[in-house]
Design goal:
The protein is mostly helical and 190 residues long. It is built from 7 helices and no strands.
Length: 190
């Protein structure tokens, strides 16, 4: 098989790989935009705000939770990173205080054993709602993290597509040069 034929075959495979990577990049960019937009739309509709640094709710937090919340203080919760901080550094602290360190499951079992304890039933209800909100926010955080991963994967795929396209172009160029007779060969034929 001639060298120029091999170059053309390998270069054609490079073009195919470049196209596949470009399509993958386009799909990943779409996934990023779709997920990120959905997370933003759903979170912004809830109108959840971080406490300001002057609020008592902020001051009541432990120092590490205050440090995590401080960059977002007073802002509306609209993205996954904020949702993770709000869930883990604000809601979780308050749920611990409300439930006395007990989980919803533990409080619920205790309430079932003492059905006449209305204060305990109120705690169970509040902790349940808090855990549900925390779970929803952590899901938003997870999905937004997937959007970020999709974005970086699209950058890698697009970079790979460019590299393979350049290599394929160089391969086709080399195939043309390999297909031409050399000067020494053409002189011998004369």
């Amino acid at each position: 098989m001639k060298r120029s034929t091999i170059d053309k075959i390998v270069s054609s495979l490079g073009v195919a790989v470049a196209l596949i990577l470009a399509l993958a990049a386009a799909g990943l960019i779409y996934a990023h935009d779709f997920i990120h937009t959905q997370v933003y739309d759903q979170l912004s509709a809830e109108k959840i705000y971080f406490p300001k640094t002057t609020d008592e709710a902020y001051k009541a937090l432990p120092t590490n939770d205050q440090s995590a919340i401080k960059p977002y203080a007073g802002q509306q919760l609209v993205n996954g990173a904020q949702a993770g901080v709000f869930a883990n550094n604000y809601i979780a602290f308050h749920l611990q205080n409300i439930g006395g360190g007990k989980t919803y499951s533990e409080l619920s079992a205790e309430s079932l054993a003492n059905p006449s304890d209305t204060a305990l039933a109120g705690k169970v209800n509040t902790v349940f709602k808090g855990e549900m909100l925390r779970g929803v926010l952590l899901n938003a955080y997870a999905f937004d993290t997937m959007a970020v991963v999709a974005w970086w994967a699209s950058v890698v795929a697009l970079s790979g597509a460019v590299v393979f396209a350049v290599l394929a172009a160089l391969g086709f160029s080399h195939a043309q040069l390999a297909g031409r007779p050399s000067r020494s060969t053409s002189r011998k034929r004369r």
